[in-house]
Amino acid sequence: MKRIVSIIILSTLFWTGCENREGSPGITDTEILIGNIQDLSGPIKELGLLIPAGSNMYLDYINEQGGVHGRQIKMLVEDHQYNPQKSVVAAKKLIEKDQVFCLYNVVGTSPAEALRPILEESGVPLIAPATMSSSMADMSRQAAQYIFHTDAGYDLQTRVLIDYILENNPDAVIGLCYQDDDYGANALQGCAEAESNHSISVQKEAFQRGATDFVGQTMNFMKGGCTDVIIGGIVREPVTIMKTAQAMNYKPNFYGLIPTVDPRVGLLAGEVGEGFIAPYHAYYPDSDESGPTLYRELCDKNNVPAKMRGIYHYYGFATAHVLVEGLRRAGKFPTRERLIKGLETLNNWESGVFPPITYSRNDHTGVESLYLLQLQGGKQIAITDWRD
């Protein structure tokens, strides 16, 4: 009888061990395959070059050290041209045909939001979507359990900027130029909160994704007497609006959301960009923190051109830390479920690139504070401490 019981126990342990080693899509004995969806040929195609390049620089660094649990990380990148419908097509290819283990860094709020049904159906996690919309961390939304956000939301950014403006000028007349999609919708949430807090009304002007002409919006801000204008764009939009205002002899104080921290804004805007203020939610690339220090060392080692170095290339590098940590915590025999559970064990985790990050089963938010940077002499200078 004892022998029979022993055989049963051993059999159970054997099959349990086999189950623990069950294969997962995108996982082999030597490789972890992940999928990334970027704009490679659309209106923000420069991001599609810079973000994955920064990610791959860090992943190569990890691979050179033996990878994660002996596996090399390989990243496939698909093009969605900043189009939500094409994002869905790209995701289906990566998941169904290429059999990636997870998705990572899908760029753009609307393109990332469009993937919720696919994530829920497939159970594929999306790590560090490359959008700062706090909607990605809203646990009441579809597929929220599969999405791990890293970035301070556009709503927080907008609210903090309005708070700052009114601290310095209680009589300020504020304008907000926002992209008419999910990106802009999240900025409007922060604007509404600030309006309620301060009992003010912000003048709002919308633009379409990919727009290049901002004469109408700029003229409306000037007619409205706006002393301070916040631009919810990326690179082209703040530069175009500031130069359009200069041509009209209109001189408000200009601000942008985090995507406008890109150094090309200062380079392209020239003197009109002097004094431009935008928030940031990570340790700045030129700081002495461990992450930025490693970033500069790897850039030098890999001969990354100076024109590529900046917040978008750094963003790919920074968010890759979160991806790698999740893969580590998924264990030697990773599954998508173990990746999710592993990330949910992060508790004030110090990455060296972001302020401490905590995830849990009910909170996939990531960073929840930021500070303000100002263009001074063509360089980004911190002008506040961390705010939330």
Task: Give an account of the 3D structure.
It is a single chain. By secondary structure, this protein is of the alpha/beta class. The protein has two domains: 195 residues, Rossmann fold (3-Layer(aba) Sandwich), CATH 3.40.50; 138 residues, Response regulator (Rossmann fold), CATH 3.40.50.2300. Helices cover 42% and strands 15% of the residues. The strands form three sheets. Strands 2-1-3-4-5 form a five-stranded parallel β-sheet, with helices on both faces. A four-stranded parallel β-sheet has the order 7-6-8-9, sandwiched between helices. The protein has a three-stranded antiparallel β-sheet with strand order 10-11-12. Strand 8, helix 9 and strand 9 form a beta-alpha-beta unit. It is globular. The N terminus is likely disordered.
